[in-house]
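In response to reviewer comment 3 from the previous cycle, which asked for concrete evidence that the modeling workflow produces usable outputs, we include below a single protein chain processed end to end. The sequence was submitted unchanged, and the resulting structure tokens are shown without manual editing.
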Amino acid sequence: MKCALVIPAWVPEEIFSSKTASSQINYWQPVGTLSVAAVLQQAGHEIRFINGAFLDHEQVLAEVRRFRPDVVGLYATTFGWNKARMTAADLKSRYRRDCFIVAGGPYPIAVQERCLVDADIDIDAVVTGEGEFTMLEIVERLTSGRNLEGVPGVVYREGQRIVKNPARPLITDLDSLPFPARELLGDADRYIPPPGTYRERPVAVMITSRGCNRHCIYCFQMDKERKSGIRYRSVDNVMQEIELCIKQGYKEIKFLDDTFAADYDRAMEIAKEIRRRGLRISWFASACVNQVDWPLLRAFKDAGCWAVLFGAESGVQKNLNTIRKGTTPQQIWTAVRTAQDVGLKVSTPFMFGIPGETFEEGLQTIEFAVKLNPDMANFHAITPFPGTYLYDNMDRFGTVSDELSDFTYQGAAFIPYTMTRDDIHRLRQIAFRKFYLRPSFLFRKLLDLHSLNDVAVVIKSAKSLLSLAFKSNLFNRQAKRLPNPR
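The workflow returned the following structure tokens.
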């Protein structure tokens, strides 16, 4: 059967301000979608991947019509759900009414049957968990002319009824999955992370584990109770994929595990095995500050790692406790210093608008970030994505936008009772200004310039920074829609 896997069309200005979009834009390899594609290909189905990041809406529709699929799988985030609905409606009306359309991704997984209610008759089914084997079973049922009765992990239409099947158990043997079908991407060099967060192109995205055993209130996990813990791929399986990426011409890898070092011994073994096999590739990973030490970070550096991201989030212990981060400012400080001491670049995201946070505490977080002095910092608004503890308990903590397009890290979809929207916008601008316009920071960046690419990144970043730091209405996308909580 022919199946098109589609990311609906979107433009950077839907996420970032038009003043900064050109320097903030990033295109991640959609490894989840490519993993679904690989499973379907392995079963003998014909797959086409259509990415609306590089096409407008009409071009997406034209690509689907040209391929003439029997099944379309639509990927949907929270902010992109309305685009997914529009794509489904136009495919049904302008391509084939009998084309079977399935929605998957973070938003459908979180709200499930609500997607079918919202989409009227334009979406036929929703995948409510990991998509690989669910999508395969959907396609094979349709190939044999059977309905979706009893298929785990599916909500579907049966006439006028919406039928919700039992959940599908999470995949425990991740080694059983084929590697993501990156060959479907076309020009891999188009897929680049944000400026300044990579060294060499093209960049491959890899995930070596699934799940998380932490309980941060803003994080979405399919297993909300964390009963399944973290599911790991074997080290040998990870090495095989790295070797394949190198053969495919990739120069750098971004490991996007929720926390790469949750299993300390395994993380150490991966680093040592990369070095033992002589795999010459740059890489970047995320880790929790209380899961790393000097020997592990030194092993990362020796194996080609050039940068690490630590989710700092706040410099105030009360607010770290509120978001259930399980860390302390001292642990953040120690991890950043240790990583820099071994020669790694360090990135630390922070967030404002934490439930119960005050404006004064936001200023304390800014001062902490400045003193911490990582190589790169970002300052987001906390976002209560559907399916998170914060979203499920929003009435206890503050007010939330009813516009799904607001659910990015760039605005303020959530306002705690202890702040106003303007407070969050002001804190973000103060943070960017105080952190990035320090003479010592600017001097350090000048010393880091080693190539024309480095210069281009600095020029783009400077343009974005000046807008972030000084444009007073840059973050005010929701200003006319959200009530002021004070």
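The CA atoms of residues 385 and 391 lie 6 Å apart. We consider this sufficient to address the reviewer's concern, and the full set will be provided in the supplementary archive.
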